[in-house]
């Protein structure tokens, strides 16, 4: 909703960037419950699972990113998504069990696949400011380079369908 409300200002700028935070966890085969976005039950009211909710939200952000870029192709606004990496300290959310929170804060942050808060922040700053990204939109980045998103995230029909759903839920015109 915020992005949509800011669009008139962004479109007046000589160049503007929208950066959405997504995750590689939307990819098939990632750990935990698989992505399973049900357009008839987007809030998972018929079987909530925090892992699935997280992954579904990251897929939805990619649909939003790609659809918004398609709608803004004639403008100087670019829209991209970034995976900041696994940041265990910030991932230790209240939706996790106490042992899982302790594990993320105390152990996982020291493992090689973990990302520090500073490195995650660097990825976001890169997307917002780096000259190498000027004019590049509708892409997914990680570690300051373009990476592949899932085939499902690239489905333009699902992206349009999600756009309609999001517009309806936020009360904004499609």
Description of the molecule:
- The chain has helices at residues 2-12, 50-71, 88-91, 98-106, 117-129, 156-170; strands at 16-21, 77-83, 139-142, 145-147.
- It has a domain at 28-86 and 129-170: 3-Layer(aba) Sandwich (Rossmann fold), CATH 3.40.50.720.
- The protein is globular, with a radius of gyration of 17 Å.
- Helices cover 43% and strands 11% of the residues.
- Helix 2 crosses helix 6 (156-170).
- With 174 residues, the chain is an alpha/beta fold.
- Strands 1-2-3-4 form a four-stranded mixed sheet, with helices on both faces.
Relevant terms:
Rossmann fold; 6 helices; 174 residues; alpha/beta; 4 strands
